[in-house]
Amino acid sequence: MRLYRSQRFIRPDLECHISSKALKHNVRNLKSLCKDGTKYCAVVKANAYGHGIAEVVNILKTEDVDFFAVNSFYEALHIDTLIDRQSILIFEAVYPSQPREQILISAERGFHCPVASADAVNFIQDVLEGSSHVFNAHLNIETGMSRCGLDQNEAQTLIDLIDQAPNVRLAGIYTHFATADEVELDYAYEQLRRFEDFLGTASIRKRKDVIIHASNSAATIKMPEANFDMVRCGISMYGYYSRPMTDPPIKLSPTMKLQAPIARLKHIPAGHSVSYGRSFVPYRDTVAAIVPLGYADGYWRCFSNKAPMMVGEHVGKVIGRVCMDQLLLDVTDVPGVAVGQMVTIIDDKHDSPCGGYALADLAETICYEILTSVHAHVSRIVH
Q1: Which end is more exposed in the chain, N or C (fewer Cβ atoms within 10 Å of the end residue's Cβ)?
Q2: pTM over 0.85
Q3: Annotated binding-site ranges for substrate
Q4: Which ranges of the chain does DSSP label H, i.e. alpha helix?
Q5: What is the set of domains in the chain, with CATH numbers?
């Protein structure tokens, strides 16, 4: 059997602190929005949104969590030995040219996977023919995302084909919302209507062994009608509302704090340019902290000359260009600043000047991209 392993290099002085208390608090609050019996799927793809997939799975495997969701077979295999009783849902659909052993392993270990074509169903059945293994297939219904979903006729054809395949069973039917995180929810509710129409037409609700799921984090919070048999929560599990909300129904607490030490203090005279491109020239004599973190570690170059960091209770500003492995921080006004002192790069407070939302605004992106950019070689420390 082919091995799917990689060696990991971890840099211990770059510290990504993960709060198990905050993570569990968020999961419990999200579950409180669901009716009794609703399954909870913890989305841990993309290295658990940058938090560390093994660390997050180990925290949550003893909680009331039914599924862990990943993007690929490789992520599923990575966490399979960590979990106790949960199932694993893979979002990447089966395709007929993937290695046959992946289908066999998926069936043996009970992974749940989307199937998006008749060729894929036939491929799975061919691999498992004559064995006692049954493959857990999910169908993604197109309701308006226009990405990976099947139209209703395609989906019905696949349901009929799956029902005739001895080694494949229909384990789930789902859809994905395109705009549930926006203030205006008309389109999301139109998607929900289309999904419910399909469930009725295909008589899915009568099939008690099929898990119906639609809600992502935003829909779990804002569209209780869409929760069905299971919710799939990603970003909100890590403490964010997809987009900031003024009056959220539940409180979420960020679970990540990213820190790095001051490696050196450098005195820069007024008028002397700083770093690549001479993009910053101080107007006064400046004390700069050299922090051993850069865009290779997941801290974006666009934060050059504008992003704040916290040094204790004081704010320092990035000066000059963020380099591949280091950056400079203006700490002239930080009292008692010292080499070895830890600097907070991404804070675990929503109202912090270097919180996830604030950095996303600076970068003109979303908090997801800020969090998932934290490199895997940064040390994850669980509290």
Answers
A1: N
A2: yes
A3: 147, 324
A4: 20-31, 45-49, 53-60, 73-80, 100-109, 118-128, 152-164, 186-201, 217-222, 356-363, 367-372
A5: 20-238 (3.20.20.10), 256-382 (2.40.37.10)
